[in-house]
Amino acid sequence: YGLYGLLARGVTFAHLLYEEWANYGVMCKYQPVDLIRKYFGEQIGFYFAWLGVYTQLLIPPSVLGIFVFLYGIFTVDDNVPSQETCDNGLNITMCPLCDAVCDYWHLSSVCSQARASYLFDNGATVLFAIFMSLWAALFLEHWKRRQMYLKHSWDLTSMEDEEVFMMCIFVTFSAVFGVAVYRICMLSVWSMNPDPEAKASVRMTVTTTGIILNMLVVLVLEEVYGAIAVWLTEIELPKTTEEFEERLIFKSFFLKSMNAFAPLFYVAFFKGRFAGRPGDYVYIFGDYRMEECAPPGCLIELCIQLSMIMLGKQLIQNNVFEVLIPYVRRPIRNKRAAEDAENDGEEQRPRQQFDKDFTLEPYEGVSPEYMEMIIQYGFVTLFVASFPLAPAFALLNNVIEIRLDAAKFVTEVRRPDAVRCKDIGIWFNILCGISKFSVITNAFVISFTSEFVPRMMFKFMYSVNGTMSGYTQHSLSYFSVNNFPNGTAPSSSLSTGVTMCRYKDYRDPPWEKDAYTFSKEYWSILAAKLAFVIFFQNLAMFLSMLVAWMVPDVPRSLREQLKKENMMLMEFLVNHDEEVLSKARSPKQSMILCPPCTLKKCPHIVVYIWVFLT
Amino acid sequence: YGLYGLLARGVTFAHLLYEEWANYGVMCKYQPVDLIRKYFGEQIGFYFAWLGVYTQLLIPPSVLGIFVFLYGIFTVDDNVPSQETCDNGLNITMCPLCDAVCDYWHLSSVCSQARASYLFDNGATVLFAIFMSLWAALFLEHWKRRQMYLKHSWDLTSMEDEEVFMMCIFVTFSAVFGVAVYRICMLSVWSMNPDPEAKASVRMTVTTTGIILNMLVVLVLEEVYGAIAVWLTEIELPKTTEEFEERLIFKSFFLKSMNAFAPLFYVAFFKGRFAGRPGDYVYIFGDYRMEECAPPGCLIELCIQLSMIMLGKQLIQNNVFEVLIPYVRRPIRNKRAAEDAENDGEEQRPRQQFDKDFTLEPYEGVSPEYMEMIIQYGFVTLFVASFPLAPAFALLNNVIEIRLDAAKFVTEVRRPDAVRCKDIGIWFNILCGISKFSVITNAFVISFTSEFVPRMMFKFMYSVNGTMSGYTQHSLSYFSVNNFPNGTAPSSSLSTGVTMCRYKDYRDPPWEKDAYTFSKEYWSILAAKLAFVIFFQNLAMFLSMLVAWMVPDVPRSLREQLKKENMMLMEFLVNHDEEVLSKARSPKQSMILCPPCTLKKCPHIVVYIWVFLT
C-alpha cells in the first residue's frame, strides 16, 4: 500500500486508518485488511475481511436481481393472468371479504395489485432462486479460501482449535424455541382482522401501516431478546469467555432471527391458508376471522414486508442506533468526564490523548456487527424468491455499512483489545445453516406463495389451447349466495341480482355432488407443488454440493507456498545445526543469522526455532 | 498384544499375522490393526481398520432389523389389509393380467404374497429407515474419529494433502452416465413380458429365475465395466499414479454401482408405474406390454431382488472369485514356475522362501476390496426401507470377509509394497455421497414402493370408523368388461357372468362422468406421498446434521494429547539449544540425548529435529 512509508513519516496509525479506510471517499477501494488487523487484532480483521468478501460477492446477484425485476416490468403487458384480472369485460363478481359489512366486489378493482404482483412472481424468479442457492454455496467456498489465505498470511496456522460446546445448550434450547413459537402465535392472533370495515375500505394502507408497526415491534423486541439471551447464557455457567461468547451468539442468533423472520414466515406460509371458504369461514375466539391475503396472492405482501423490514431495519439501525444515539451521548459523556475531573480536586493537568480516548464509548465486541450482517444474509437468501431486489438493497447498505463501522471503530469507540482468533468461528456454521435452510424456504415460497405452479399446471394440463387464457376463470371457484349462513351475507349491497359469487380456491361448485369440497384440480395442483419442492430442493442441494466439491478449500498458490515453506524449514534445520556448532566453537566470530523467510510470511514454527537458536 | 514377545522368540511376522488375524478362530477378537499396518503399510492398514469399524457398527442395525422383521411376523395376523386380501368371502374378481390369454382371477389367490409383503411393509420399517439415516451419519462421524486417532498413532499428521483431481473428469463423466442410462433402458426392454402365458401361470418362479439371471448378468458386467473404467482413465492421461488411482476409482465406482443398483431402481420406481390400466395398457414396439409387479405390490419383489443380489453377490464373489479361482490357479502357476526354472537351465539350487513367494498371485491393490464393501454399504443403506434384514446379511458376510481377506493377503498374494497414505481418501467422499443419496431413495421407497402412505391416508381420511377395514375395497378400482378393446378380453374364461372386474389403482369407476381418469383419491394420496418424501428427507437430513455437529471430529483424549505434545516440542526446543551449545564446548563429554517422547508416539517433527540435533 505504501502505507508503511506514511507511518514512517510520523502519521499515526489511527489517522492512517481513518484516511485510507474509515471515510466515504475510499468507498470503491478494497479495504486495507492487513492494516486493520495490525491495529485492531485478528477478530476485527476477520470481520471486515468477511464483510468485504460478502459485499463484493453481492454485486452479481444484485445486477441479476435488477434484471429479473426489469424482465417483470417489460413483460407485464404480455401477462395473460393479470390482463384477465384487469379485463372489465369478464365482469367477475367476487364474494365479500368479510361478514355482513363487506359488499360483493369486481375482480378488476385489484388490477394494479395483480400487475404489481407479476413483477415479482414470474418465471425468471424461479431461475433466480436456483441461482441464489448456487451463489450461497459459492460464497461459502470463496470465503473458506480467503480465510485460509488470511490465516496463512496472518500466521495463525499453528493456533489450536478450541473444543466446541455442546451439552447444556439443549436445556436452554427449549426455552428459546418456546419464545419463538409464542411469538408466531401472538403474531397470528394480533393480525386477526380487528376492524373489518376499516380494513376492507383502505386495505392497502392498513396492510402497509401494519407492516411498519410490525417492523417497529421487531426492532424493539430485538433489544429485549438480546437481554434474554445474555440471561439464559449466564444460567448455563460456561467456564471460559470463549465458551460464553459462543453460547451467547448461538442463542441470540436464534432469538433475533426468529424475531426478524417470524413475520415473513407467517405471511409466506400461514396467512390465509386456514381462512376457510365463503359460507364456512374459520373463526377464532368466537368472533375473529382468520386473516386473508389481498386477492392477487400473498407474494406481493411478502414482498412489501420484506422490503419494509430490510429497508427499515437498515435505515433505523444504521442511522438511529449507530449514528444518532452515539452522537447524542457524546456531549453528555464529555461533560460528565469534565465534572469528574474537577471533582477529583487534582491539579488541572493538560488533557492527554488517553484522557480524550477514555471519554469514548466502550467497545462492545464484534458480535452485534456480525449478527446484523448475518440477519441481512438471511433476508437475502431465505426469501429471495419473493423479492429479487433484496441483494441490491443489501449491497447498497453494505457499501455504507463498511465505512460506517470503520468510522465507528476508529473514531467513536475506545480502541478494543486485540483478540486473536483463527477464523470467524461459529458464524461460519450459522452461515452454512442459513444457506441450507434457504433452499427449503425458497422451494416452498415458489410452490406455495407464488402462483408459478398453478400457472404451469394450467398451461400444460388444463388449458385447451396450451396458452394461459382462461387461467383466471379456472383459478376461481363458485359460491351460491343462498349458502351464506345467517347474518353473514352482505347486509346492504350495491350489486343487485347476484346469485353466484367467486372466490380464489379450487373447490367443487355448488351444483356438483360434493359441493365445496376440494376439487380434483386442487389435489393435482397440490401434488405438483409438492413435487416441485422435492425437485427444487434436490436440484439446488446437488448443485451446491457440486460447487463445494469443485472448488478446493485451499487455493493452489497457497498450497504450493505451504509446501515450499515446509521444505525450507527442513533445510534450515539441517543446515542450521552446523552453524550453531561452529558459532559455539568460535564465540568471537558473531554472525547474524538470517531467517529463511521474511518475518511476515514465516510459519510460526520457523520464527520460534530461529529465535531460540540464535 | 504381547505380540512383540512372540516376535522376539523368532516367530515370523507373517506367521504371527496368520495366527492372530487371518483365521476363523479369532473371529470374535478385534483385529491387530497396528501389526497389519507394520507388515502391509498404511493403505492396507486403513482398509482393515475401516472394515473393522464398519462391521462392528453393523451390529446394532442388524439386531434392530431382525426385531423389525419379527415385529412383522408377530403382527401379520392382526393386519387388516392382508386379512381382507385372504378373505374368500369378499369374492373380489380381478381383471386379467395380460391380453386374451389370461383369465380373471380371485384376489384371495395372492393371499400368501400379501402376507409376505406385510413382513417388510409395516409401520416399523419407516422408523427403521429413519434410524438407518442416523446410523449412516453416526458411522461416518465415528470413522472420522477413529481415522484421526490412527493418523496420530501411526504418525501421519504431517503428511501433505494431495491436490484433488477435477478437470477432465467431466469429459468422461458423460460417457459413464451414458452407459448407465443404456443399462436401465436395456433392463426395461429386456424385462418386458416376453411370454405372457408362461409368466401368468408360474409368476413367482419366473420372477425369481429372472432375478437370478439378472444377478448373474450383474456379476459378469461388473468385470466388463472394470475394464471400461481402466480404458476411460487411460484416455485421460493422468499425471501421477495417485491421480490415476483416484480417477479410476471414481469411474469404476460409478459404473459398478449403476450395474448393481440399476435393477433395484427399476423395480422400486419404474416397474409397473407406466403400465396403463385394463382396456388401455401401454404397449411398446407394437406388441410388448409394460411389465407389472405382482398384485401385492412391488415392495416384495424389491425385497427378493435385494436379498438375492446381496446373498448371491456375496456368496459367488467370496467363494468363486476370491477362493475358488485362486485355488484353481495356484497349481497351474506352480507348475509353470517349475517349468520356467528347468528351462533356465541353471543349476538346481534349493528353493528359497522368496522363490515360493514369487509363485503367489500378484497383489492387485486394495481398491477392489473397498469397491466390494462400498457397494455392500449401498445395499445396506439405499434400500433398507424395503428390506430391514440387509444389515444382518451384511454383518454375516463381513465377519467372514475380514478373515477371508486377511488370509488372502497373508497367504495367497505376494506381500504388497507398503503404500503410505493419511486416510481412506476418496472412499470417504463416496461413503458420504451414498449416505446422502440413501435418504432420498428411502423416502421414495417408503412413499412410492411400499403402501405405507395409502394405508395411513385411508385410516385418517377415508375410513368411516378410523380402522383399516375396507382398505382393500377402497384401493381397487372398477373396470367394466364391456370396455375391453377388441381381442384383449380373456378368450376362454372359467368365471362366468363377470360384468365388472377390479384392478389396483385409484381411478374413477365406469359409471362416473370422467370414467377411468385418476380419481380425487389418487391425487390426494399422491400429494400425501410427496409430502411424506419432503418430511422424511428433511427430518433425516436435519437429524444427520445434528449428529455430525454433536460428535466432535477429534476425540477429546486425542485433542489433549496433541496439545501436550506441542507444549513438549516447544519446551524441548528451548532446553535443547543450551545442551547443543554446552556439548559443543566440551566435545569429549558426549551425552546421549533422549527424545522427549517415545518414538512410536512422537510427532514427526520432533523426531526430525531430534535426529538432526544429536
Describe what this molecule looks like in 3D.
Chains A, B: It is found in: Membrane. Chains A, B: GO terms for molecular function: intracellularly calcium-gated chloride channel activity. Two copies of one chain form a homodimer. Chain A has a two-stranded antiparallel sheet with strand order 1-2. Chain A has a two-stranded antiparallel sheet with strand order 3-4. In chain A, strands 5-6 form a two-stranded antiparallel ribbon. Chain A has 614 residues and is mainly alpha-helical. In chain A, 30% of the residues are buried. Chain A is built from 22 helices and eight strands. In chain A, 65% of the residues lie in helices and 4% in strands. Chain A starts with a helix and ends with a helix. Chain A folds into two domains: 31-460 and 523-554, no CATH class; 557-613. In chain A, helix 3 packs antiparallel against helix 4 and helix 8 packs antiparallel against helix 17 (426-449). Mean pLDDT of chain A is 77; it is low at 162-166, 196-202 and 587-603. In chain A, a hairpin with a 2-residue loop joins strand 3 and strand 4 (280-281). The interface between A and B is large, with 43 and 43 residues.
